[in-house]
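Minutes, project check-in

Agenda point 3 was the complex the collaborators sent over. CS summarized: two entities, 494 residues total, and the question is how they sit relative to each other. Sequences were read into the notes so everyone works from the same version.
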Amino acid sequence: MPAVQAKSISCPNCGGPVQLRGFAHTLSVVCPQCLTVLDASTPEVQILQTFQGKTRTQPTIPLGSRGKISNTQYEVIGFQTRQVSTGEDSYSWDEYLLFNPFQGFRYLTEYNGHWNFVHLESALPEPANARGRPAFRYGGQTYAAFDSMTASTVYVLGEFPWRVQTGDSVACQDFVAPPWMLSSESTGGEITWSRAEYMTGSQIWQAFKLPGSPPPAYGIFANQPSPFGGDVGSSWRTWLWLNVVLAALVFAFMFLSPGRVAFSDRYVYSEGAKPDVALANTTGPFVTPTFQLDGRTSNVELSIHTDLENNWAYFSFALINDQTGQTFDFAREVSYYHDSDGSEGSRDNRVIVPSVPSGQYYLRVEPEMARGSPFVAYDLKLQRNVPNYGFFGVAALLLLIPPLLTTIRKGSFEAARWRESDYAPRSSGGGDD
Amino acid sequence: MNTPLFVIYGVLLLGLTGTAEYQGWSWTRVNQQRVLPKSIRDNPGAYRSSYGGYSRYIGGK
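CS then shared the predicted structure for the full assembly.
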């Protein structure tokens, strides 16, 4: 914006110079020396209101500052503080009036480090409904009712395109569709609509080249965009695609790991006398014939099936490479008990031996039972390359963590936002404004 | 977690799952004794299993 010579008048109260930057738009101006509100609409500048307050407020963005927002340069020409009192509680926010000779007036509002760039709207929003809440539709977007209040002007500085005075009050209503907020201000039967876009303190500091860094924002503002807003949908979409890949992996390993039987046989174990069965009988440790484990280094599953009845058996195994002597030592208990009340345990058990290289192997088997037990017949089956679906199950669970966390965090953020609203869920005890 | 990080996490997780499956990893604890004399095949009783000596009652209704 080119440098423009501001018009200057004298304050009829203190005689101090008062600059007018808003040209013919300015209807009232506040003397920066004595804070008297002056009527600037006529050449005979008249006093509208003298300053009755006790303290002066220093705007964070000084009057006369220039900054670029949305590629347009604006000058700060006015400042007011508005306050809402609800019984014993009250809160206030600051409003900056921005002016550009070609674009007209805009506003910046600041509350607890949350900023909004505000534009007055000429079209009327249409009443609507947003999940049971009153709402308005404007510009293709639905704005849900957030809160309503009566705000009073408690401090003014600079110039304004209306006759501003401290004590002015308006009924306000806010409707939100983050990062946007639609607000209505009604006074004397006239309703003004404005639309605000949320801005961070850093954006304001950068736009107006303010020294230092912005103060941190406290709490969650009505139209503050959720940092997880876009993430929830995309993280669930990513989750879906990763599960498609996981399912493809499952199918691939169903072919890569067919679970080929490398060895199987049936045995009988007894503590003492030889049972009358036509099976290889063992009373102590024994070794199986050798068998070949082919292919890549992979797992081996040994499954045990017994005919136990109200008894237990314990099997110590050693899978031994016949050439290298490399041994995998493991054991499994099998126990099965039943009566009229039901059953406990199982006649079967299995063990997966991890990462077994290919080669010629044999099994050393050492069964045990309680002394005096009857014999037990059992089958041993050894399979190579058995799919371990537990890994896929764990992967599926672990893949759920990020989208679930994102969803929970977004839910917490939105709950915190709506706790400040007039439409807070009943369980939260309502807003504190 | 934002999407690119989730994609990296997911790809690493699926890569680990595929590797575990391909290499035949297992949750099972297995002792691996690398040196074992060939005489074990002829005399299986000479081998002392890490899990042997179990003869005691457990469980039961």
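Noted in discussion: The longest strand of chain A covers residues 141-160.
Follow-up: revisit at the next meeting once the mutant set is ready.
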